[in-house]
Write a structure and sequence with these properties.
Layout lengths: L9 H9 L4 H20 L3 H34 L3 H8 L9 H11 L4 H5 L6 H17 L1
Helix pairs in contact: 2-3, 3-7, 4-7
Length: 143
């Protein structure tokens, strides 16, 4: 298998070193997606290339929102929540539902928390809400 050297800003390299991720696999996936899009453009499949690019953008956005939600959930659990309020939020992860954001807002409201103060918005995305719930569940598991 071939290898490749990349130049990165120092601060990015520091953040990457701190994260426990398979950077080769992530880079390989990004390279394959970019090449697939270029192949589609070269063969006149501009629409398909645009859709593929947008799907990749959506995937990255969803992952980012989930990670931001998880960080916010951990922060809320550690800094603001009462123990009795952790389980109802964490239990949302076990339910089969497609409205986690609404359920999370309802749960926080029922426990008398300011939704915007907890989530940074009164209308979180599903990915952010799912991440928030996962972050709370992570903290609860350690208590």
């Amino acid at each position: 298998m071939a290898s490749l050297n990349l130049s990165l800003p120092d601060d990015l390299k520091e953040r990457m070193s701190a994260a426990n991720l398979n950077w080769s696999a992530l880079a390989k996936e990004a390279f394959i997606n970019a090449l697939d899009i270029e192949d589609m453009k070269a063969t006149g499949k501009i629409r398909e290339a645009g859709i593929a690019r947008l799907r990749e953008s959506k995937r990255k956005n969803t992952e980012r929102e989930h990670a931001e939600g998880a960080a916010a959930g951990r922060e809320w659990a550690l800094d603001a929540a009462e123990y009795d309020d952790l389980k109802p939020v964490a239990d949302l992860a076990d339910e089969e539902r497609d409205d986690v954001a609404d359920a999370l807002c309802h749960t926080l409201h029922e426990a008398s928390y300011d939704i915007e103060a907890c989530l940074g918005t009164i209308n979180p995305s599903e990915a952010f809400a799912e991440g928030f719930v996962a972050g709370v569940a992570e903290v609860l598991a350690e208590v």
